[in-house]
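Troubleshooting log. The previous run stalled partway through. Resubmitting the same two chains, unchanged.
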Amino acid sequence: MIRRRSIGNLTFDVVIYILLILLTVACFYPILHILLASFSNPSKLVAHSGVLFKPLGFTLNGYKLIFRDDSLLVGYMNTFLYVGLGTVINMVLTIMGAFVLSRRDLYFKNHFMIVITITMFFGGGLIPWFLLMKDIHLYNNLWAMVLPTALNTWNMIILRSGFQSIPVELEEAAIIDGASQAKLLTRVIIPLSKATLAVIFLYYLVGNWNSWFNAMVLLKDRDMFPLQLLLKEILVANDTSASTMGSAGGVVIDSASSATAYRELVKYCTIVVSTLPILIVYPFLQKYFVKGVYVGSIKG
Amino acid sequence: MEIIRKSTRSILKRDFKKNWFAYMLAIPVLAWFLIFCYGPMWGILIAFKDYKPLLGFSESHWVGFKHFIDFFEGPYFWRVVKNTLLLNVWGIVFGFTAPIILALLLNEIRDGLFKKTVQTLTYMPHFISIVVVCGMIHIFTADEGVVTQLLQFITGKDYSSLLGYSSFFRSIYTFSGIWQNVGWECIIYLAAMSAIDSTLYEAGEMDGIGRFGKMWHITLPQIRPVIVILFIFAVGGLMASGYEKIILLYTPMTYDTADVIASYVYRRGLRESSLSFSTAVGLFSAIVNFALLWATNKIAKRNSDVSLW
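Second attempt completed without errors. Output:
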């Protein structure tokens, strides 16, 4: 009886392990493939079809091409600017909003909450939003990349839950000791909410780094484009604008014969260069993300 | 009456004195909501006008439901409604269940290192930007791409770039979505599973149910509230979801399966400048969306006591 049970148990485990390993490989292999291809010899790469287990030959020419080219570097600098400024504004506004919503004794507390909740279910839609952006001159300038996304309601509610999980007694003690509300926020609430703050900071950071749609709709000048929008031109040549025809998104290739091959290689290299920073950092931040998802799911 | 008014005023006065700092912080936050969330709601009115940029918002002529009727009677109404619904049904059948299955499998693993490795690697794709994901899809489904090659190997047929076939669009869209989000979305379920009372499993063991039985009869029912809430959200986002990815992946060749309401709004509105028409289509979609959310919530409330409101 016990023996049969354990054999059943063993097969159950084996099946589960096999399924999980297959799934993990399926999730990770595409990333590995891109990485290996980015170091491969472009002409061999074009001739090759199917799975890669190691780079085909070895070259850094793709990366050299990218970094020799100005447009991607400009894209990088723009992205740093938008992400830096945007995330600071995100954090300040979110902390302010979460603080207000977490005040238990505020007379208008529930009214604020209603004003905010309605926007999670109703909106104006794309076109009215776009026309408004143009009307208030958030078009083709730095603020167009920062202000429309200055706040995320969901993140604000997560942070409010974080603030509310601080014991009331602690806040009362600080008030009795003579702390003003400003001091209460900066000296007690913020230091005690570091974990939740880290979570929403990372959400905003990744979100800002990866965003492209607002840039596509609201920016006109190429020298203001963030990295993701340039990537769109290089990787997803859906609209055949002139710039993507003779070169790979501005990366000019000298010899016409290997142009196609190099254009492929540049694709792989730009993916690596634009994605690797986040993929390297996030395993260290994993526990914060997990906590954030959890807080968001039980309290939201 | 007079007394009540007075006391309300004095309460407000006291509240403002005590909480003036919070009120000051509230001003910019509320201003942001009013401008960026409520501002566009006002603009919905142009769905009932013939909006001409030169005439401006208030000077453009009222046309009533003309744009809605144009949309309902137009050749693309059924195409975009059908595609929107079908893509989302696929998303719920495959995309919604996949993370639940992964969480159930991972929950059976006792080896901490293996579990952590699987988790780390499966939710890596979540952090890749949608532009890069679509770039990767383009690469892998190109003529010589790995996925194309695999499909040729399995079916024995010759395929060129898969994104050119409208019959493959739903599969590509749905399964790349699972690839990107399965690891991430299973976190919530795993968290819910870790909170299950272990005495339940001991009781199950006494009753002689096997490992699969425990999974089916204990773990799954225990996380049902989480599943229901996420399901309501999934249905609530039905009409609006995923347009960024669709805009990046579709081509005129695949419009007949790929074009959804949101991508149609984007194309007609911003590409072809039919601003009023496009707003009307967007409003239609928002109304249907809210109705679906409301209905799902009501059904969930009646059948499982779990609901959003």
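Takeaways: The longest strand of chain B covers residues 49-50. Residues 67-303 of chain B form a domain with the MetI-like fold fold (CATH 1.10.3720.10).
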